[in-house]
Design a protein that fits this description.
The protein is α/β, with parallel strands linked by helices. The chain has a domain of 145 residues: P-loop containing nucleotide triphosphate hydrolases (Rossmann fold, 3-Layer(aba) Sandwich). It contains 8 helices and 8 strands; from the N terminus they run E-H-E-H-H-H-E-H-E-H-E-E-E-H-E-H. The chain has a 5-stranded parallel sheet, with helices on both faces. A 3-stranded antiparallel sheet has the order 6-5-7. 35% of the residues are buried. Bound molecules: adenosine monophosphate (AMP). Adenosine monophosphate binds next to helix 2 and helix 3.
Length: 232
Amino acid sequence: MTASIGQVRDIGHVVVLLGAPGAGKGTQAQILSGRLGLAHVATGDLFRAAVRDGTPLGLVAKGYMDRGELVPDAVTIEMLLERLGAPDAAAGILLDGFPRNTAQAQVLDEALAGKGGRVDIAPYIQVPEQDLVGRLSGRWICRAQGHPYHEVANPPLTPGVCDVDGSELYQRTDDQPATVQARLRQQLGSLELVVGHYRDHGILRTVDGTQQIDQVSKDLLAAIADVTDSRG
Ligand code: AMP
């Protein structure tokens, strides 16, 4: 597959946030992208928007998503590269939910290299497998913008209502218990390989994801600052 990012001359810092489903990637990605001024690019959000809008991409993705399976690489990569070509990506990006396997990681490396860029750092939010099912089945997200909550760990101020935009909270089809098991089985194996890919490149930083949300953010910011400070 040829990897190319549209009409962007240069690309700023590229942070790949890694973690299993339920590790807190979405929550942390929102905090970090705001603090660091990076565009938050979440492939899951892009797919959910496509499903909501009923686009051809959404029609392809929906079945895979409902079953808790990965959408095929060709479709996912094309969507991602198109998003990286948008003007806001030039300031730098925080990737959430991509890459999910080594083929995607390689295509990303090639596409960035073609722009004189690279993945600067891959912080990994590590959470033991036995904690993940409970975390996922307690998760609710808002209709308007996908802000994530958790029944126990991070409840909204008013039950069923998003603190940020007031929209209704709902449970994703793929967060329901039977699907959660399938998603975890499929995704943990690939995640391990992606973690290995970035470890081999010397840019993996592991953070303990069982801590309080604030502490996880601090650890992630400290890990990322090492790189962003040194590259300017
Ligand atoms: P997420 O919100 O990241 O958990 O993603 C929700 C669903 O979107 C996943 O279960 C997949 O079906 C699909 N998806 C998101 N990112 C990717 C990706 N990088 N590769 C393939 N499928 C993806």
